[in-house]
Amino acid sequence: xxxxxxxxxxxxxxxxxxxxxxxxxxxxxxxxxxxxxxxxxxxxxxxxxxxxxxxxxxxxxxxxxxxxxxxxxxxxxxxxxxxxxxxxxxxxxxxxxxxxxxxxxxxxxxxxxxxxxxxxxxxxxxxxxxxxxxxxx
Length: 137
What we know:
three-stranded antiparallel β-sheet, 2 helices, 25% strand
């Protein structure tokens, strides 16, 4: 089961999936008052309003950060869906697939990914086929 943590301000809930985080630091650089990697908890949702949080989270290239509006929390995944699928190649980084997709792994099990999925291009990942930021080392 994929590990995830949730942080709520009452209006929205921020979802963090550490296993797919590529440590781009878009969140930390975009909202240092909220995303504090040296603090516990590292996400302090009460330091910004919901619209500011959603705008910053929408810039997460890996999809490790997502959110759902608590009033709309009726689906199982509770994740904001992307309307179209598109592919983006990051300079010295992963291949990003934006949208909903089904992945069939080498052992045959299937997995649904929503929002943005970062696929490793360098082969150094410890979480194949997904990028885990290992290329930075």
